[in-house]
Design goal:
305 residues; mainly alpha; 11 helices; 0% strand; globular; Formate hydrogenlyase subunit 4; transmembrane helix; lyase activity
């Protein structure tokens, strides 16, 4: 494994991740016929947070202080398992795609603890809602990936993506995974990134007590996590070959990857415009449908379709 190139690829992905969030916002503003914020606004927000003074609650313990590092570190580790430009530039040999879910769960666990540790009522509310939704998200995501893994007889990233074609079961699994992506990236109809209304916040409620560089780290981790989910969804929907073994140049592989991310961002933007924020207990119906899609995809895959 080429460690310097692996770190370089991960660094480029992290630096580009806020741009994806800005592009989704631009798509939504264009559909609303609004000018909106600039494409690079997420970078400006992170830079602003880095210059701010950090304020820590008196009731906070070491959990609150170390959570941003754990969340960002687990997200960066998950990014290592996702093939971006080349399979040879990933840590797929150290674990399979299911490792992503364990790393995301680690960050979610510490973030939920931090929401409770600060002693804020809103933080505790956000933590309980986050874990409530996660109990529905994770089974649907694992089962959707299992459907794709059944085509390659392996859950490793490289054979999983390369063996996946435009099968009927794959399309159903992709629909389930898309609904999971909306929930994991705090998108409508599950959550709303554009509001700070206390009664509707989920992810943002756990971050209310954070400020300064810690908030910048959490925002960076959220952008990187979104890029990972878009990459996984794009690899299943459009399993174009990447890497040196495909016979394509590095520039062509990078162009294919960027195109898939753009398409995913456009679809997410269109979905957010066309749907409304659901009530919390209606989210169970939405994610339950995603789980049923995963089960249906598994059945269809067993029938050979």
């Amino acid at each position: 494994m080429k460690i310097p190139l692996l770190l370089l690829q991960a660094g480029i992905a992290v630096l580009a991740a806020p741009l994806v969030s800005g592009f989704v916002r631009r798509v939504k503003n264009a559909l609303r016929m609004r000018q909106g914020a600039a494409l690079v606004q997420p970078y400006r927000n992170i830079a602003k947070y880095m210059r701010k003074e950090e304020v820590v609650s008196e009731t906070a313990s070491w959990i609150f202080r170390w959570t941003p590092s754990v969340v960002l570190g687990s997200t960066l580790a998950a990014l290592m398992f996702v093939p971006v430009f080349s399979f040879s530039l990933s840590a797929a040999g150290m674990g399979d795609v299911l490792s992503l879910f364990f790393l995301f769960s680690l960050g979610r666990f510490f973030l939920a603890l931090a929401g409770l540790d600060a002693g804020s009522a809103f933080g505790g509310m956000g933590s309980s809602r986050e874990m409530f939704i996660a109990s529905f998200v994770e089974p649907a995501a694992v089962l959707a990936v299992a459907v794709v893994a059944a085509h390659s007889s392996s859950s490793a990233a490289e054979p999983l993506v390369r063996s996946m074609g435009m099968s009927f079961s794959g399309m159903i699994a992709a629909a389930s995974l898309f609904m999971v992506v909306l929930a994991e990236t705090s998108r409508i109809p599950v959550d709303n990134q554009e509001t700070h209304l206390e009664l509707t916040m989920i992810h943002e409620a756990m971050l209310l007590e954070y400020s300064g560089p810690s908030l910048a780290m959490l925002e960076t981790a959220a952008h990187a996590k979104q890029l990972i989910w878009f990459s996984l969804l794009g690899a299943i929907l459009w399993p174009w070959p990447i890497g040196s073994s495909s016979g394509l140049s590095a520039v062509a592989c990078a162009a294919f990857f960027v195109l898939k991310i753009i398409l995913c961002a456009i679809v997410v933007g269109l979905t957010e415009i066309g749907l409304a924020k659901m009530r919390l207990f209606r989210v169970t119906d939405f994610l339950g449908l995603a789980f049923l899609f995963s089960v249906l995809a598994l059945v269809v895959s067993g029938l050979g379709y």
